[in-house]
Amino acid sequence: MSRVLLVRPEESRSQYDFQGVIENECLELEWIMTILKEAGHDVTIFDKQVERKSFAAFLASQGFDVFYGECRCFQEPFLLEYAKLFRERCHGLVIAGGIHAQINSGRLQKDYIDVILCGFNYYDLPAVIAGDRHPANLVWQEEGIWHTTAKEAVDIRKMPWPDRTYFYAHPDRYPYLDMKHAMWVRSAFSCPYRCRFCLRNHMNSGVYSRRDVKDLVDEIAENDNETVYLVDDDFLFDENYVRQFIQTVRDKGIRRKYICYGRADFTAAHEDLIREFQKIGLVYLLCGLEDISDSRLDSYNKRNTAAVNEQCIAVCQKHGVRLMAMFILGLDWRGRDFRQLYRYIVKHDLKHVAVSIYTPEIGISDAEYITDDMTHFDYLHLVAKPVHLSVRQWYFHYYVLLIRLFLKAQRDGVYDFLDYGSYIRSFLRTILHRGEEDA
Ligand code: SF4
After folding, report:
1. Domain limits at 330?
2. pLDDT given for residue 346 in this prediction
3. Residue 231 Cβ contacting ligand 1 at under 6 Å
4. Most buried in the list 166, 205, 251, 369, measured by CB within 10 Å?
5. At 209, is the secondary structure helix, strand, or coil?
6. What would the DSSP string read from start to end of 304-355?
7. Measured between alpha carbons, how far is 114 from 76 in angstroms, rounded to an integer?
8. Which H/E stretch holds residue 33?
9. Which of 200, 232, 289, 298 to mutate to test the pocket of ligand 1 (most atoms within 8 A of CB)?
10. Does a structural domain hold residue 323?
11. Is residue 419 part of a domain?
């Protein structure tokens, strides 16, 4: 039996972290917890999103034999810092994993990391801890030489249910905006679409794998948490699946509030399903509208049109579903593009909007980057040069848009739980600061 520490680093150490606003349940670690507990290990989770103690202080108070840390691209420096500290203090086995590892294992090949798990085969971790280096999706080192095993997609139906002890121990955390304590449930790995900017469809070696509806609904029924966040990259993909999901939830008399990701084309084409989903509790539909022009949607290989996006908006508004409209701010944008997007948001009365800076993802893009600070790959920073504007000009329009969106949200009375003033003041400070910096 080993004492295993499962670690998820913080999302950010900057002023723009979303702590207390959107916090993600550490589902991956909870799956691993189930697997390792069943194998007889003593398992502890440390999620820096919610932990108050520093990692160093936490380590000082306990002893562990094994470290497993997962991260996304922008958490890489934090994960490496924690893995290194663990090796120095505890001298145990260090394993890295997570989404970033699936695409960029080379970046995690450090002398203080022993094994990198580059797939969803968490069920192989007991063997890895026991010293087996044959399971699929491994990158591992022996005396400074790195080895790899075969890549293999994982059938999600082999996954156990997560051990949610940690989630339930933090009832006041893991919100999604105004939805308290949102329980993450995943029904599929990867995504069947191939949008050019998106990392998600590269997960699981690009193979889409989905659970049976009954198993999904049983997991939801087993947990009486009010908010269920269906975190599939695209839950609204297969009409029959969604129909069966709604029917099974109805048959079992389950009352929950749902958040899910779904595509605009599906939403526009299945008004009846959206209406029925709303009736069983759909509150937020997170939808990548991405852009307001057909040419940019085409360039993203979105397989969708601006007209369909408008139908999606109309369907959600008609049936009382809160559409979280997500847009990408292009590197080729000029000032007028930022202004046009704002006018579109006002015209369509979009209450919930999220804007991301176009980020050519490390590992799937050959872009020339203007930074090697991995924390900037968080969709809130420019990591590549804008095409028509200087970096300073581009940021200027970006922050003006953010300020306008925050003021609009304040007028609309959404996100009342946010301190608007402090966000807006900090955007203004950033504009002024960048002005001085670049002057
Ligand atoms: S549909 Fe969504 S998750 Fe799938 S590839 Fe496109 S952006 Fe990514």
Report:
1. 176-389
2. 98
3. no
4. 166
5. strand
6. --HHHHHHHHHHHHHTT-EEEEEEEE-TT--HHHHHHHHHHHHHTT--EEEE
7. 16
8. helix 27-38
9. 200
10. yes
11. no
Provide the pLDDT for residue 210.
97
* Residue at 372 is within a domain: yes
Count of other CB atoms within 10 angstroms of residue 421 = 10
Please give the pLDDT value at position 16. Answer: 67
Q: In this structure, which residue's CA is closest to atom 6 in ligand 1?
A: 195
- pLDDT confidence of residue 208: 97
Integer Cα distance of 401 and 408 in angstroms: 10
73 token code pair: 């691209």
215 residue type, one letter: D
What is the tens place of the pLDDT at every residue in 11-50? Answer: 988 866 677 889 999 999 999 999 999 999 999 999 999 9
pLDDT for the residue 61: 83
CB of 191 closer than 6 angstroms to any ligand 1 atom: yes
Looking at the structure, tell me whether residues 248 and 369 fall in a common domain. yes
**What residue type is 191 in one-letter code?**
C
Instruction: Note the pLDDT of residue 432.
Output: 74
Residue 288, ligand 1, Cβ within 6 A: yes
Q: Of all protein residues, whose CA lies closest to atom 8 belonging to ligand 1?
A: 198
Q: Please, what is the end-to-end C-alpha distance for the chain in angstroms? A: 60
Q: Which atom of ligand 1 is nearest to the CA of 263?
A: 1
pLDDT in tens, 74-101: 999 999 999 999 999 999 999 999 999 9
Q: What is the number of domains present in the chain?
A: 2
**What pLDDT, on a 0 to 100 scale, did the predictor assign at position 438?**
46
CB crowding 396-408: b at 16 or more within 10 Å, else e:
bbbbbbbbbbbeb
Dist. CA 291 → ligand 1 center (Å): 14
Mutate which of 99, 103, 193 for ligand 1? The one with the most ligand atoms within 8 Å of its CB, which is 193
Q: How far is the CA of 148 from the centre of ligand 1 (A)?
A: 28
Ligand 1 centroid to 300 CA: how many Å? 10
Smallest CA separation from ligand 1 atom 3, residue: 233
Q: To which H or E segment does residue 391 belong?
A: helix 391-412
For 102, counting Cβ atoms within 10 Å of its Cβ (0-12 exposed, 13-18 middle, 19+ buried), the class is buried
263/334 same-domain check? yes
The pLDDT score that the predictor gives to residue 423 is 77
> Residue 282 maps to which CATH number?
3.20.20.70
Residue 433 lies in a domain: no
Query: What pLDDT is attached to residue 250?
Result: 98
Domain CATH code at residue 33: 3.40.50.280
* Ranges under pLDDT 50 in the chain: 437-439
